[in-house]
Write a structure and sequence with these properties.
alpha+beta, globular
Length: 122
């Protein structure tokens, strides 16, 4: 975490900003800051498990239809959300809104980092 600062940093809890964002503490600077999983380079085994549990509990809600009911498991909306939440456990990132690949226009998962789909990145 925070590669510009020497020493250990500590995860404190939910940052209450975006899904997957965590509150952390720098004892050298005596400051708190926000961090995402992809910004953490070196972490203890305990931190790995803490983040895994945090992201499981911070997973965005499943999609709902116009009357407020969750989409059925076999719908494209639910399957899209399921793929996105599986990736969320790896990235810890969740974009609010819709995005398309800048190259081909394919819908991007909200948990996908970057502006290109997997096909166009190859």
């Amino acid at each position: 975490m925070e590669s510009h600062c020497a020493g250990k940093h500590y995860l404190l809890g939910n940052a209450h900003t975006f899904n997957g964002r965590m509150l952390a503490w720098c004892p050298l600077k005596e400051k708190s800051f926000y961090v995402s999983k992809t910004e953490i380079d070196d972490l203890s085994e305990e931190a790995q498990y803490w983040i895994k549990g945090f992201l499981a509990g911070n997973e965005p809600e499943p999609p709902i239809d116009d009357v407020g009911d969750m989409f059925a498991f076999d719908t494209s909306q639910y399957q899209f959300w399921l793929k996105a939440t599986e990736l969320f456990t790896e990235t810890g990132y969740w974009y609010s809104g819709e995005r398309q690949c800048e190259t081909c226009g394919e819908d991007l998962l909200p948990s996908q980092i970057g502006d290109l789909c997997a096909e166009c990145r190859q």
